[in-house]
């Protein structure tokens, strides 16, 4: 039976491309540059999208569904061109149309800058969620910031990371729409004038403030094959020209200049920190800026068709992507009370019923806290409201716990108050001001409940729930790995594209020799594709017959890229000392950006590159190991990498990785996990079975127990384990750098003898032997072709749970309670 396809007019597309090239550039196709052809093609696609976008809006206006506002400082969208074609079900038609014009679709796709308005997992999750929301037919707005510069581009010079600004908007963005008619004003600073107006109402009026205009830019978010187009609304800031610049009043002039400066700085750049908060004033301004504009918009939209503001929460829900958007709680209170005249209690009910919070980390350095004086100076009215929320909450704690046997009320207040120690604790505000708190994998949620947020859980258990992360199979399989996608469709039909649980039908092929061969042949082709990329970009030749062992993710100590490279160093040493020992050739592939100011992370990149240099040039090891550091790891090259991975390195210190999502993307593409029992790895192993993964190392409980008792002494391991000793000595004996002291800081991180509680905080040496052993097991398993093919295939077959469609459906059913939008069937 032929499935329904969205209609797509190929001839119209071709005509439109030719027309666009002519009118945009006064050129013929022969004269146009690849960038110009990309622009012309993107505008042609946008034309096709606009009709669906309008239809969606119309259907929403008629059906009045509840809307989720996904509020996030980051949306790591990746390229839109190919993804839009996939979701329009027009990829093959456009490929053909371009072919007929003598143009390669891949070349066109490569012209698009990779929009990187996010750091890593948290921002990419937001992008996957938007894809799933549209595909499942739920009305959603992504609300974010239109940074002029996204995540920096990484270049590697002499083995070191060098950051280069990412001017992604240089050639404009063909997919966006500027909507100046929906601009909003956002106010900063000044003071609050409190007075009673003629009607006897107490008025809180912000005065002496600076104001900027928030201008929305809308990006279409397409559902797969259903004609649904949602909106990602990202805000830019512009100055408001309310003061005459020729004014003789010096105060006004000064103010006008300040306002201009503020507007020009606000959306300049994304803070490039992963799991670390720098606490900069500008960041708080960014947060309030996009939140105020987004909350104003949500209220306005609701009031267009409804008159009872007290029922706002029946038509809108705000999901706060970590604590960064948490000022939404106080901003919603402010607008409801100051602009729409609700009482405190009425406004509070609406706010709590509207807001929900997702926690993405338990790393203490990532917990957002703002100094009270900064917060108060920048957001005086918001601060008043937070202060009152805190006062009432502390009251509630006292009421609940005073006279409770064995409970120290003061310690409860210390651990839960929103304002404490002259700090505003954003996580506490998010928990108190909303009705749902979720972690992003089962283990993570349990740790939140039992440890980090224990007191909150005890006081309000009904708010806590788990939503294990997921990823979109449309981008990370259908687009990234067309060979495998086609093969799967040939075997089980294409239902998996919108229902990943159907992948389990592949299990019946796990022992089928022919299917195994085909599966591994596809993997091989993808490895060749990546090998070609590596040759072009790194000038390193890698052998697609070797095991591709991949660790790609942000560089952070807890993710333990250092453990991986130490193991490579050990292997190198081992091969050199035992040249005749059997060793299955391996290619270790790394990709990672380090936060610009994170020295240990940057030095780890240098170490990986130095090790790569020595090993790749050492002819004596006969190419048994190669090490590759892929520069500028980002969504677009990630797609190539995931498709080619044999081994997926997920080796974080147990308890530290909230979930991980790269682990899911590699599983989807038939890579086998080598990992610790951390984050979503636990659930991956649960799905695929212990026999189809390689698990090693301390458990999260063991790690937490050590931490409670002040750590452990890595010197004991150093002294008793010759493997560890040999490898650590290589860090400081000049094997990998002329300057023997270069890597001393890494050596000290592991062995710091001055401060043993700081030594090897991430248990690298403690897990080292177990990791070596797991690596050995992998080589052994890979050598048995049949066994490996089965394992790889089983990983793809068992990945059904990890679709973001499943995650979103859980949010909808258990938290958001959205209604599906019905679109007219074409
Ligand atoms: C990540 N967090 C988690 N934060 O580390 C990862 O385990 C999880 O899978 C993912 O979220 C999605 O839930 C993360 O990416 C950030 O990048 C923040 C950016 C802003 C500053 C603080 C860290």
UniProtKB/TrEMBL annotation:
Which family, according to the similarity comment? Belongs to the glycogen phosphorylase family.
Pfam families in UniProt: Phosphorylase (PF00343)
The molecule here is called Alpha-1,4 glucan phosphorylase
Chain positions found as N6-(pyridoxal phosphate)lysine? 665
Please name the GO terms that the record assigns under molecular function.
glycogen phosphorylase activity; pyridoxal phosphate binding
Keywords of this protein's UniProt record, alphabetized?
A: Carbohydrate metabolism, Glycosyltransferase, Pyridoxal phosphate, Transferase
Stored PROSITE patterns: PHOSPHORYLASE
Q: Which GO terms describe its cellular component?
A: cytoplasm
User: Where does this protein come from, organism-wise?
Assistant: Butyrivibrio hungatei
């Amino acid at each position: 039976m032929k499935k329904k396809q969205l209609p797509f007019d190929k001839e119209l597309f071709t005509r439109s491309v030719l027309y666009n090239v002519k009118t945009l550039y006064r050129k013929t196709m022969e004269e146009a540059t690849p960038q110009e052809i990309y622009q012309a093609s993107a505008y042609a696609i946008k034309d096709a999208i606009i009709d669906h976008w309008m239809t969606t809006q119309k259907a929403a206006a008629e059906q009045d569904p509840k809307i989720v506002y996904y509020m996030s400082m980051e949306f790591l969208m990746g390229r839109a061109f190919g993804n839009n074609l996939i979701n329009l079900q027009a990829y093959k038609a456009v490929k053909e149309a371009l072919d007929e014009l003598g143009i390669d679709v891949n070349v066109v796709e490569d012209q698009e800058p990779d929009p990187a308005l996010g750091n890593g997992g948290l921002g990419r999750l937001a992008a996957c969620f938007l894809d799933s929301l549209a595909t499942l037919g739920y009305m959603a707005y992504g609300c974010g910031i239109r940074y002029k510069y996204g995540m920096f581009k990484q270049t590697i010079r002499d083995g070191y990371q060098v950051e280069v600004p990412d001017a992604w908007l240089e050639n404009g963005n063909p997919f966006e729409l500027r909507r100046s008619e929906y601009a909003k004003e956002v106010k900063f600073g000044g003071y609050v004038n409190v007075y009673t107006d003629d009607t006897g109402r107490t008025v809180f009026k912000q005065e002496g403030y600076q104001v900027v205009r928030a201008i929305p830019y809308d990006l279409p978010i397409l559902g797969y094959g259903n004609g649904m187009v949602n909106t990602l609304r990202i805000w830019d800031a512009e100055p408001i020209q309310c003061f005459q610049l020729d004014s003789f009043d010096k105060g006004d002039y000064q103010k006008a200049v300040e306002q201009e400066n503020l507007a020009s700085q606000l959306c300049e750049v994304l803070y490039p920190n992963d799991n670390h908060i720098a606490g900069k004033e500008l960041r708080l301004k960014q947060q309030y800026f996009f939140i105020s504009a987004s909350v104003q918009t949500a209220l306005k939209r609701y009031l267009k068709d409804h008159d009872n503001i007290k029922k706002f929460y029946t038509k809108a829900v705000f999901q706060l992507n970590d604590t960064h958007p948490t000022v939404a709680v106080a901003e919603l209170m402010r607008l409801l009370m100051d602009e729409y005249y609700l009482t405190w209690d009425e406004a509070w009910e609406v706010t709590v019923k509207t807001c929900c919070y997702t926690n993405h980390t338990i790393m203490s350095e990532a917990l957002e806290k703002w100094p009270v004086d900064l917060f108060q100076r920048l957001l005086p009215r918001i601060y008043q409201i937070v202060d009152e929320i805190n006062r009432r909450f502390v009251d509630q704690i006292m009421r609940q716990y005073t006279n409770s046997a064995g409970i120290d009320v003061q310690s409860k207040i210390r651990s839960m108050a929103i304002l404490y120690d002259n700090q505003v604790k954003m996580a506490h505000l998010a928990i108190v001001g909303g009705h749902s708190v979720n972690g992003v994998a089962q283990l993570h949620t349990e740790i939140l409940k039992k440890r980090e947020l224990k007191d909150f859980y005890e006081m309000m258990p009904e708010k806590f729930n788990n939503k294990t992360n997921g990823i979109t199979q449309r981008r990370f399989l259908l687009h990234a790995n067309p060979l495998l996608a086609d093969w799967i469709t040939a075997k089980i039909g294409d239902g998996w594209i919108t229902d990943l649980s159907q992948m389990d039908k592949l299990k019946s092929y796990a022992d089928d020799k022919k299917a195994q061969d085909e599966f591994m042949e596809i993997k091989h082709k993808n490895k060749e594709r990546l090998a070609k990329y590596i040759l072009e970009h790194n000038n390193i030749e890698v052998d697609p017959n070797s095991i591709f062992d991949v660790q790609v993710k942000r560089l952070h100590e807890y993710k333990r890229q250092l453990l991986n490279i130490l193991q490579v160093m050990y292997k190198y040493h081992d091969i050199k000392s035992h040249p005749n020992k059997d060793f299955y050739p391996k290619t270790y592939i790394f990709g990672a950006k380090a936060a610009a100011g994170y020295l240990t992370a940057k030095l780890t990149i240098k170490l990986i590159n130095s090790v790569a240099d020595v090993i790749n040039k050492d002819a004596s090891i006969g190419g048994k190991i190669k090490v590759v550091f892929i520069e500028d790891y980002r969504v677009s090259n990630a797609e190539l990498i995931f498709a080619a991975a044999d081994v997926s390195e997920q080796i974080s210190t147990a308890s530290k990785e909230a979930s991980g999502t790269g682990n899911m993307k590699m599983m989807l593409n038939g890579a086998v996990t080598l990992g610790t029992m951390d984050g979503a790895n636990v659930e991956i192993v649960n799905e695929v079975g212990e026999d189809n993964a390689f698990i090693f190392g301390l458990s999260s409980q063991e790690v937490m127990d050590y931490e409670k008792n002040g750590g452990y002494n890595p010197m004991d391991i150093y002294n008793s384990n010759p493997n560890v000793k040999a490898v650590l000595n290589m860090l400081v004996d000049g094997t990998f750098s002329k300057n023997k002291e270069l890597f001393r800081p890494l050596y000290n991180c592991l062995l710091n003898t001055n401060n043993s509680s700081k030594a090897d905080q991430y248990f690298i040496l403690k897990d080292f032997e177990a990791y070596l052993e797991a690596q050995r097991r992998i080589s052994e398993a890979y050598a048995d072709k049949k066994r490996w093919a089965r394992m790889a295939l089983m990983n793809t077959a068992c990945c059904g749970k990890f679709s973001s469609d499943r995650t979103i459906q859980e949010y909808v059913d258990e938290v958001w309670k959205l209604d599906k939008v019905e679109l007219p069937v074409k």
